[in-house]
Write a structure and sequence with these properties.
Number of helices: 13
Strand order of the largest sheet: 4-5-8-12-13-14-15-16
Helix content: 40-55%
Order of helices and strands: EEEHHHHEEHEEHEEEEHEHEHEHHEHEH
Strand content: 15-25%
Largest sheet: 8 strands, mixed, barrel
CATH topology of the largest domain: TIM Barrel
Bound molecules: 2-phosphoglyceric acid, magnesium ion
């Protein structure tokens, strides 16, 4: 037990230069601080990040309404704290107080409780036997909403399959470097930049990007001695317009898009595909899962938005076989945990994930271990991305000690 003595919320910067919120909680013998991230390709069913009046309105609500009630609560009473946040908000989607305020408060309470017990967050939440570290999944080429002038597909990802987490982290970063070198060779003299998450951005077709990604994965695999596999986040809701999937050079009906994605999975040997269909197309997800779900991990991000009810619908319909977990899509740790439990009970893999606008907060590294997630999507390089990756390396060291 460790009672909350003080709580502070402040405006801070995220990696895109936008304002976000950070919450600090001080207890008798513990301390926690968490900053909330923000998405660019947000799902329409996510909770609302901030009230209409912005981050300042969240800070004011925190000071006027949350602080007076949270002080004196036991920081380890996670459910009670999260229930209080819902009660104070009073809306179904955190539109009054902001989902980002809710998530920063909820997670900083958990961090404070863990610190009062003198254990790392992953152990406090996952127990003494939590020892599986999720495989880092990092993007090497980016487009869509994360990069102007890039591919239609949002993220070309790699996942290193080494036994040791640190080897996976270095393997993904090495593959990112290889992709940069290959791009410079392929497009001599062209401007090659980086997107919001540190992935390379270049004027490439989706197919050219896929070929280059696979070539880099093969080269890295043979040099490093473990497999580096290709994956995608298609973020398909972003180019689903008037009933069709519209790419720069082609468009598909939903049925044909299922065939198109299935052909990409087969041709490029994709290990995982996130958001291959529109966020409301449970049927398309189910067809694709039926077609390639035995050999490919099909992840619902905008489809499920870490929401228990939407996952329940997906389970009933056989849509996807994995779920992306982003705590700020749903707003509290309790809600996130319940969705993770439901996924596990129904054989869905979980992939814990960053947002495109991040801070140096490393909480998701701990959540991934506590939840027993299959993978953690948090980029391959860049300050706010390596904050999570380096924390995974520290957790691995702690587990081996
Ligand atoms: C996604 C995420 C993170 P955003 O679509 O999975 O990569 O992007 O945070 O912009 O929603
Ligand atoms: Mg996504």
């Amino acid at each position: 037990m460790s009672f909350i003595e003080n709580a502070v919320a402040r405006k801070v910067l995220d990696s895109r230069g936008n304002q976000t919120i950070e919450v600090e909680i001080l207890t008798e013998s513990g301390y926690g601080m968490v900053a909330a991230p923000s998405g660019a390709s947000t799902g329409e069913h996510e909770v609302q990040s901030f009230p209409k009046m912005g981050v300042d309105a969240s800070v004011k609500i925190f000071e006027d309404e949350i602080v007076p009630q949270i002080i004196g609560m036991d920081s380890s009473e996670q459910r009670a704290i999260d229930t209080l946040l819902h009660q104070i908000d009073g809306t179904p989607n955190f539109s009054r107080i902001g989902g980002n305020l809710a998530v920063a408060t909820s997670l900083s309470a958990a961090r404070a409780a863990a610190s009062a017990y003198g254990v790392p967050l992953y152990k406090y939440m996952g127990g003494a036997l939590a020892s599986d570290i999720p495989k880092p999944l990092g993007n090497v080429i980016g487009g869509g909403r994360h990069a102007i002038g890039g591919t239609d597909i949002q993220e070309f990802l790699v996942i290193s399959m080494a036994k040791k987490t640190s080897d996976c982290v270095f393997g993904n970063a090495y593959t990112h470097k290889l992709v940069g070198q290959m791009l410079k060779k392929k497009l001599p003299g062209a401007a090659i930049g980086k997107g919001d998450e540190g992935a390379w951005v270049a004027a490439l077709s989706n197919e050219d990007a896929l070929s280059l990604q696979v070539e880099a994965c093969d080269k890295a695999s043979s040099e490093l001695g473990f497999k580096v596999l290709p994956a995608l986040d298609m973020a398909a809701s972003e180019y689903f317009k008037k009933g069709k999937y519209v790419y720069k050079d082609k468009s598909f009906t939903p049925e044909k898009h299922v065939d198109f994605v299935a052909s990409l999975v087969k041709e490029y040997g994709l290990h995982l595909v996130e958001d291959p269909m529109d966020q409301n197309d449970f049927k398309g997800y189910a067809s694709l899962t039926e077609a390639v779900g035995k050999k490919c991990i099909i992840v619902g991000d905008d489809l499920f938005v870490t929401n228990k009810e939407r996952l329940t619908t997906g389970i009933k319909k056989g849509a996807a076989n994995a779920i992306l977990i982003k705590p700020n899509q749903i707003g509290t740790l309790t809600d996130t945990y319940e969705t993770v439990q439901l996924a596990k009970q129904n054989g869905y893999k979980t992939v814990i994930s960053h947002r495109s606008g991040e801070t140096t907060d490393d909480t998701i590294a701990h959540l991934g271990v506590a939840f027993g997630s299959y993978a953690i999507k948090c980029g391959a390089v860049g300050g706010e991305r390596i904050a999570k990756l380096n924390e995974l390396i520290r957790i691995e060291e702690d587990l081996e000690a």
